[in-house]
## 1
Amino acid sequence: MSGVVAAGLGVVAGELAAALLSPSLSPVSAVGSVVIDAMPGPVKDWAIGLFGTADKAAFLVAMAAVIALCGAAAGVLQLRRPPAGAVVVGLLGGAGLAAVLTRPQMSVLSLLPPLLAAVVGILVLRALTARLGR
């Protein structure tokens, strides 16, 4: 759970920073856009046919599940093989940063939210797993 909480707080920090600094481009929306752009047409059509107008909500739930699973893995790794868990959380933030860099509305300010998300996630993960280790 430490990893899930750390990843979740990282995402929240990134989204809040994006709301203040770069409202048109948050890390979550950037990653979502990259994934959707990379998806083959038949897969998009299948998802729209399956979920209808709730396709975006279903996609956000799937993204949250992937983030939670990565966070859970990061928590276990951080306890067993530090700093491997922190590296996983950093890679999540790196994915957000890479996604933001590919968007046409990218600006210098839009780079800060994914960086903040990674830093917050790593710091929270380290703090929570340190408490568990004691």
## 2
Amino acid sequence: MKKSKSVFIKNAFIMTVTALILRTIGIFFRIYMSNKVGAEGMGLYQLIFSIYVLASTFASSGICTAVTRMVTDELVCGTKKSVLNILRKSIFLSAVIGLVSAALVFFGADFIGTYWIKDVRSIPALKVLCFSLPFMGVTSCLRGYFIARRQASTPSRSQIFEQLVRIGVVMLIIDRFSSMGIAYACLAVLLGDALAETASCVYLGCGYLLDKRKLTNSTLARPRNYGVFRKLLGISVPITAGRYLNSILRTIENILVPDCLTKYNHSKEDSLAQFGMLKGMAMPLLFFPSSFLTSLSTLLIPEISEANALSQKKKVERTVNRTLHLTLTASILISGIFTLFARKLGLIIYGSEEVGFLLQVLAPLMPVMYLESVVDGILKGLGQQVSSLKYSVADSIVRIVMIFVLVPLRGMESFLFVVVVGNGYVVYII
């Protein structure tokens, strides 16, 4: 028990430090990007990125959580052969889905850019992003394996390596590309993303080849009667359906916001700039302090899954209660600090009073945002993917309807109201 607890604390520490490093680098990188492409460029990038998230949701297909839970079970009651079998089949499944996703984005880029995003400048970047999707799916499988093995250091190092590759590529080419316009500036950033995903996949693959030699048979090993593909799909499909439906709704929301803002202020450039300040500058800053809670949410999946497999109900209840208490306490404190210093943070970090105003309005919502993330991890650890799906879909539908009706009337003011109401609704349904 003590060893298990110490491993959990060690992994939480590693993932928290990694997340802090990545988010710190990410904030400075976004400042660098905003200086290079401007608020309008950040807005266009966020629209393209919403398609990226949608495609990557399908490509990774909830496989990380499925692999984590299945490998965790096999490490408790299975054999080395069964663990490797799960990983081989999950990688094959992810690679196939990733290739299908890549083909859909590549051949549909003209349609997506013209009719969904409604900005043809997005088309070149859309065609580039698709090449990372097969690698992203495989990376999800490998990351799930290492989380189940309670080895946070390998995926953490891969994430840092991925971010360094991304920044290196973008810094190397963005000046040359941005001189040709916003479309090529976004292309440079998405090219960096694609190469970074590929590098991360290779890094994790090498780590797996070294680690699999250390696998041993469980002392509680017993015959397993389920088919691997069936159970993989049984876990990942509900998660994927939830994430995919949620991603579709979020993508609709992201595309709808600039369009509705344009109806209010009659300027597409200003609308993209406002959208870029909110989604590309303010929101990443608000989620910056959540590094520990994000790590905790990820690590809870194998812990709760293992406790469930061993029928340790009291341990599950104790873990959930402590986690929720910690989340609320920490997030309320962080929210208070952001609320007090929002204006100064906007000026110091981005040199923008408007970003400071956005931070001040949204900072009181941070406890709800953080709690939602942790509850999602708990539900997945308990196998309650469908409940997680219901909450996120209900939230998205409410937001989309309100955006469509209110934002054309009062612009960004209405959208901020929608965000506040949407997060309040999440608290109610949870």
